[in-house]
TrEMBL record:
All residue ranges annotated as the Response regulatory domain in the record: 645-766
Catalytic activity: ATP + protein L-histidine = ADP + protein N-phospho-L-histidine
Stored InterPro entries: CheY-like_superfamily (IPR011006), HAMP_dom (IPR003660), HATPase_C_sf (IPR036890), HATPase_dom (IPR003594), His_kinase_dom (IPR005467), HisK_dim/P_dom (IPR003661), HisK_dim/P_sf (IPR036097), Sig_transdc_His_kin-like_C (IPR004358)
Histidine kinase domain ranges (all copies): 410-623
Known EC number: 2.7.13.3
Protein name: histidine kinase
Disordered as annotated region, ranges: 1-28
Domain HAMP, chain residue ranges per copy: 296-349
PANTHER family from the UniProt entry: HISTIDINE KINASE, TWO-COMPONENT HISTIDINE PROTEIN KINASE
Length: 783
């Protein structure tokens, strides 16, 4: 639709502003008032800037002049201090050389003609470096021998000075002080005389120098340690420089002080203020004239915009355009004024476009929300599948762990039977061979058997911990005693490898199971020693917030990060692919982890390959207690086995034969049975009551040693005989079997047992008994 013609009614309705009238009077333009205001504001700003610049120049110039003047004073003070240092050093050096001249010192004492040739020589030193000096040579009692001729005046050495000298001679070393006489400060110093015959102090040289005479600057003074500096006069500045003097005078704390007048500013102000005033007046005049001209030029376009706006307000918009001049802010205003009407016309079109865009965006958002919902549903399904897979994997892992435990238990039991027979037969063979040449072979066999027994014992420890049959015996434990014991045990072993082993002494006392705590620390020390070939191993503890940390540092091979989480698993070793027995069995750290969890502790490790490792055992703070005296408990040495009778019940003929031979070698009689019925038959046939019953836990036909012992005890009680000491031997490491055996109340020994264990059992059973055998088992420590 074509626009109405200019001047028509429709055109006026669209272009005219609301409230505008065709007959409204035309506004008259302003007549340059904005330019005058701009000039006045510029003039006031110029005055303010001139005042600020003038004040800044005055402050900066004054401070610069003050700093320059103070630097000059410091330079003069430093120069005077260096000159004074030279004078003091010259005097001190000259006097010290005179005192060190043993020939002169000897001549002063021994020469009968010293008055003829020494007196002129000494008088030549009444001035040193143009400074008057009084010197007196004395003997070792402080009595004058010779001087340099100054006997009168304040510079002469007074009786009080000689009394001070005698104290210095008594001390036997050079001394220096500052004395005040007749309003003058003097440096009073003494040097010891060394004779060539004795090479020891046999006299002294005292010298006295006025302090002011050593200062070459007329306005400087010397201050010392006991002197309070006088106040600085008004209008003056003072600079103090410490003097670098010989060590003999260092205690005097000599300082040179130089006073000088303050900064003279009168001459500075006499020429600066008039010059600055003229420059400021000229600048302000130029600012006003220039600002007025610039204001007129800038407001020309504004006046034109004012006329254009008045015409549009009166007549309406008829396509007028503002004139655009240049590229400044006023030109930008004119350009914006021209674009204003075009922008108003474009607003509606832009609104329609935005409405269409909003509809499109809402549709897109709805589609994305639906897609996100579908993806979330898929994620939930995937998460459920992952959870089910994790549950299945956990079940598989638990079955595998149970199968591993069952396999280890079965394998351990089957291995312990022949190992037990080998141990017993080997011990019996060693006793019977005595000094026979073949006895060395028995030692080798026993060493191999010890390695195999350690493996079986470690498996047993793991099984006992898994079975929950280990109960902590909490009591007061001295951590320092454990550290000292381990250091005494491992220091020589470490030294044989070229490793230094140290423990940090500590007085910490805590509530813990001493045996289990020491087992944890010992296993960690063993592990550090096993993998450290050089450097050192350090055992110590330190308190942290909320816990006590026991740490074992080593400089061994270290552990890679990917192995840190697995080193506490059974049979896992990082650097032993050939399964070398010298590097352990891979069970020590697994036992440490289980013992720590049993005691409520936490064990962790930090390591760097080829740098070393640090194992840390964190013990909670409530376990700590105040230091207390802990009575050392010493193990009672078992007595020698006596002569008695033992009943052995075991279905394995080799084990039964080995136990029989070993017990007979100790001088005992043995009844050997393969079942409970056989044991009861032997008891009926014999008239003597056995002192000891040893029964295997597993017997033939599903019977157990517990049942056999109970049957023997019942038969003996029926006959009125006393109950013997009863011991159960077992090779089982299954957690449930261990728990059942421990719950029986009888003494439990785990295969393989050694000859010393059998000897201890015989010693215990030979003691007088007053109760049932199951109660006597407590007299012997558990494995």
């Amino acid at each position: 639709m074509p626009d109405p013609e200019p001047g028509s009614a429709g055109h006026r309705r669209r272009g005219a502003f609301p409230g505008a009238s065709a007959n409204a009077p035309r506004r008259l333009p302003t007549s340059g008032r904005l330019a005058r205001r701009f000039a006045l504001v510029s003039l006031m700003l110029g005055v303010l800037i001139a005042v600020l610049i003038g004040a800044s120049l005055y402050v900066v110039s004054s401070r610069h002049l003050a700093r320059q003047h103070h630097a000059n004073v410091e330079a003069n003070a430093t120069l005077a201090a260096r000159q004074t240092e030279g004078v003091v050093n010259t005097i001190a050096t000259t006097v010290r050389e005179l005192a060190d001249n043993s020939v002169l010192a000897t001549a002063l004492v021994d020469s009968a003609g010293k008055e003829t040739y020494l007196a002129p020589f000494l008088r030549s030193f009444n001035h040193i470096a143009s400074v008057p000096v009084a010197m007196v040579f004395t003997d070792f009692e402080g009595e004058p021998i010779a001087d340099n001729g100054r006997h009168s005046g304040a510079l002469a050495v007074s009786p009080a000075d000689m009394a001070w000298l005698r104290k210095a001679i008594a001390a036997g070393r050079p001394a220096a002080t500052v004395v005040h006489q007749d309003g003058t400060h003097f440096l009073l110093a003494a040097e010891m005389l060394i004779y060539s015959r004795t090479a020891s102090p046999e006299g002294a040289l005292i010298y006295k120098v006025p302090l002011d005479a050593m200062v070459l600057h007329p306005e400087a003074m010397l201050l010392h340690a006991n002197e309070t500096p006088p106040p600085v006069p008004d209008g003056m500045v003072a600079v103090t420089i410490p003097l670098k003097v010989p060590d003999r005078l260092a205690g005097l704390d000599l300082r040179l002080r130089l006073e000088a007048p303050g900064v003279p500013t009168a001459a500075f102000l006499s020429w600066m203020l008039p010059a600055y005033g003229l420059a400021a007046a000229a600048a302000l005049l130029a600012i006003y004239v220039g600002s007025r001209a610039v204001g007129n030029h800038l407001t020309r376009s504004l006046r034109e915009l004012e006329r254009l706006a008045g015409a549009i307000a009166t007549d309406g918009f008829t396509g007028q355009r503002a004139t655009v001049r240049g590229n400044d802010e006023v030109s930008a205003l004119a350009t914006g004024f021209n674009a204003m009407l075009d922008h108003i016309a474009a607003i509606q079109r832009e609104r329609e476009m935005r409405a269409a865009e909003e509809i499109t965006i809402q549709r897109t958002l709805a589609e994305r929300a639906e897609q996100a919902r579908a993806e979330a549903e898929g994620s939930r399904n995937e998460a459920e599948r992952s959870r089910q897979e994790a549950v299945m994997a956990l079940m598989v892992a638990e079955r595998a762990n149970a199968a591993k435990t069952h396999f280890l238990a079965a394998a351990s039991h089957d291995l312990r039977q022949p190992v037990q027979s080998l141990v017993l037969l080997t011990s019996a063979l060693g006793i019977r061979l005595g000094d026979h040449p073949a006895a060395s072979l028995v030692g080798s066999i026993e060493a191999s058997m010890d390695a195999l027994c350690r493996l079986l014992d470690a498996i047993l420890d793991i099984s006992k911990l898994d079975a929950g049959t280990v109960s902590p015996n909490v009591q007061a434990v001295s951590l320092g005693a454990i550290f000292a014991r381990l250091e005494g045990e491992y220091r020589l072993r470490a030294a044989e490898k070229g490793v230094a082993f140290h423990s940090v002494p500590t007085t910490v006392t805590l509530n813990a199971d001493p045996a289990l705590l020491e087992r944890i620390i010992r296993n960690l020390v063993e592990n550090a020693l096993r993998y450290t070939d050089h450097g050192r191993i350090l055992l110590g503890c330190r308190r942290t917030r909320g816990s006590l940390s026991i740490q074992i540092h080593d400089t061994g091979i270290g552990i890679s990060p990917e192995h840190l989480e697995r080193i506490f698993h059974e049979f896992y070793q990082v650097s032993n692919p050939t399964r070398n027995r010298g590097k352990g069995l891979g069970l020590g750290l697994a036992i440490v982890d289980r013992l720590a969890r049993l005691l409520g502790y936490r064990v962790h490790v930090a390591s760097r390959p080829d740098k070393g490792s640090c194992f840390t055992l964190d013990i909670p703070t409530p376990a700590l207690r105040a230091a207390a005296a802990i009575t050392a408990q010493t193990a009672e040495r078992p007595p020698e086995p006596g002569r008695g009778m033992a009943l052995v019940i075991d279905d394995d003929p080799l084990v039964r034969e080995g136990l029989t031979l070993l017990i007979e070698d100790f001088g005992w009689r043995v009844l050997a049975a393969d079942s409970a019925a056989d044991a009861l038959r032997l008891l009926r046939e014999g008239s003597k009551t056995p002192d000891l019953v040893i029964a295997d836990y597993r017997l033939e036909a599903g019977a157990t040693g517990l049942e056999a012992i109970r049957a023997v005890e019942t038969a003996l009680q029926a006959q009125g005989r006393p109950s013997p000491l009863s011991v159960v031997l077992t090779g089982d490491t299954a957690p449930q079997r261990i728990a059942d055996a421990e719950a029986s109340g009888y003494r439990i020994l785990h295969k393989p047992i050694a000859a010393k264990d059998v000897a201890q059992l015989l010693s215990l059973s030979a003691r007088p008994q007053g109760s049932a055998g199951r109660n006597l088992g407590a007299a012997m420590p558990q494995d």
